[in-house]
C-alpha cells in the first residue's frame, strides 16, 4: 500500500524536483548570508509565518551570539546539498567558523520559507580499511552495580574452525570520554577497533564511568575531595577478568592501549596486573594533566586561537596556574580543599597522578611496550615523546613510532594543529592500524618498528 502511494507521489513530484532543489539552494544561501550579516529582521521574515510569533529577532540574535562565542566568527559558507522530502525540502551546508567547521541543516517548506535551522559536527564515516562485513560486535557491561558501564567487543566473523584471537582494551583520555573516544566528527577508538578487528584482533572499547554517569554527577555531584584516578578507570580490571573468560579470546594475549591520560593508566595496569601481556601508549604525557592544559592555552594564543575552544576548562590562566603550583607542591595533602586544585578535583586524585610516572614504570616493566605519537599533536607534544624515547631507548622491550602529519587523535592533517580540525570528518591513519596489528601479532616486541 505504502509502496503504491510512494510510486504515485514520485510520478507527480518528479518533474518538480529540480525546481524545488533550486528553491532550497537559494533559500539556504540567503538565510546563511543574512545570518552572517546579522540582519535579524530579514532572517525572521524568512521563517514560516506561524513560526514568526515564536522566533523573535532577539531570540535569533542571542542564539547566534552563543554560536559565535563557542566557534568564533563565520568565515566561509559552502555549497548546499539539497534533497526533496514528502512535506519539506532539506539543505545541508558546510560552514567554516574560525574555530570549527560544522554542517548546517535547514528545513524549508515548498513555498520557500524556513521551518528550522540546526548546526552540528560532520558525521563520522567508517574508515576505508575496515571490512564491516567481517566484524561482529557484542555489547558488554563492566564494573560493579554502583559503577557499571557499557562497552563493545568487536570480534572477527566466525570461522569454520574454532579460533582464539589476541585482544586489546582501549582506555580513553581525561574527562567523560565515550567508548569511541568521540571528539567532534572523529571517533578514533571506533576506527582502531574496526581496523584491528579487520586484521583478526579482538578489541574492547568502553565508556568511561565519567561518561556513563555524567548527568547523575551534574545533578547530584560526587565526592571530589576523595575521588581518585583508580575510581575513574576502575572498570578496566573488571573488563580484563571478563575478557579472559571469553571463549574466543586468547587469555594470555590481552593488551592495554591507552590514549593520553589513558596511557598513564595503561602502563600502571600492565605493571600491576599479571593478566596483561603488554601495553601501547598513544600520545602519553610525561607531565601532569594541568601542565599540559596550560601549555595548550599558550599554544592556542600563539597561533591566534581563543583558549575558549578548550570548553571553558581554564577561565583565568593566572588562577589556574596557582592551582597547578599547589598540586605540584609539597604542601598538597589529603586535607587540601578540592576547590583550590585544578578542575576542582581533590588531593587524592592529584597525589595518585603524581605517583604515576610513565618513564619509571616502563623502565621497570618486564613486558613489551609500544609508544606512538603524532607529530602535529599540541595536547601531548613531541617533546613528551622525545623525553620518553631518550629515557627508554635502551629498553629492549620498547618500540617507538612518530607520525609526523598526525594530530592528537592520530588523524592526518597539514600545518599547525587547531581545535577546528576535530570537527572535520576523518579517520585514524591506516599506518597506525598496521603498526599496532604487526606489534600485537608478531610477539617479538624487541624488533623496532
From TrEMBL:
The stretch of residues making up the signal peptide is: none
Q: Which domain of life is it from?
A: Eukaryota
* Boundaries of every Dienelactone hydrolase domain copy: 358-416
Mind telling me which SUPFAM superfamilies this protein's record contains? alpha/beta-Hydrolases
Pfam families registered for this protein in UniProt: Abhydrolase_1 (PF00561), DLH (PF01738)
One of the record's GO molecular function terms:
carboxylic ester hydrolase activity
User: What Gene3D superfamilies does the record point to?
Assistant: alpha/beta hydrolase
Q: Which InterPro entries match?
A: AB_hydrolase_1, AB_hydrolase_Est10, AB_hydrolase_fold, Dienelactn_hydro
Q: What region holds the AB hydrolase-1 domain? A: 250-302
What's this protein's name? Uncharacterized protein
